[in-house]
Every structure is written in C-alpha cells, then in structure tokens.
Amino acid sequence: NEAIQLLKELPHRSSFSYILMDKESNYAIVEVTPRSIDIRYEPISTNHFELLTHENRNYTKESKERLERVINTTRSDLRKENAFKLFNDPQYNIYSKLFKSWSGTIHTSLYEPQTLTTWIGLGENSSPTKIDFYQWLKNNTLTINQLNGKIDTDLTFATY
Question: What's the pTM?
C-alpha cells in the first residue's frame, strides 16, 4: 500500500508497469503514465497495459503472446533458478530481443520479499547477481558496485 501511494504521488515522464509484492505475498501491478495511474491485482505482467489500454504502444501482439507463454510455462512450485533461466534464456521465448520496438528484455530480475533479496542479470543468458537488501537496510554496505552483461542490439543505451 505504501509503494502504491508513493507511485501515485510521483510524477512520471513515461509509461511503465510496476510489479509490486510485499512480505505476505500480496501483489499489485501499477500501470503508470504521465497522464494516469491504475492498479490491478494479478501475479503476471509483460510489456503492455491491461487497464490503461489507450496508453499502449501501437503493437502489443508480441507482448500478449509472451504473457500467454509465461502463464503456460510457470507454476507456483517453480524453483527460482529455473524461473530465472526461463525468463532469461531466449530459447524459452519469454526473453525478447525486440529492442527497436522498445519491448526488448534489458534485464531479468527475481525478487524474494520474505528474505529481501533480489537476483538481477543484464542481457540474455546472464548469471544472476544476488543483492541482499536486508543487509543494506541494516546500514551494511552492498558488496556490488556494478552490473555487467551484454545486450544483443546495435542500439545505444545510456549507462553510468
């Protein structure tokens, strides 16, 4: 609820779906644009809006097809290692290389709200970097300074 309230208060310059989950496994998908915000309570999302459909880009067929593949290939007992690979390996047709239409997969992330840890990998077939946010919240310094990966495109991305 606090994250949803924060997203309602923040100005947004572009459209984005925020996927939220708390320690009790309550989840929400917050669809945000510079003009509007709406919330749906579903466990799965890809790169298109379900509520703010008038804000979708012109071509959403690929995103909707990926959503269907996610629904058909995931289960609640899926091990996190297998889930990360499923979303990060192009052979499973969930990872997208459609960067020119702004629907490519730049990163894959996995969040564990119960332990406050996350896995993140840049580009395809990446090994996840694990981040312990619980330790960070206790004022311990994170041991990671950068993320490395390769994105298979000739487009230029802003990096730091």
Answer: 0.81
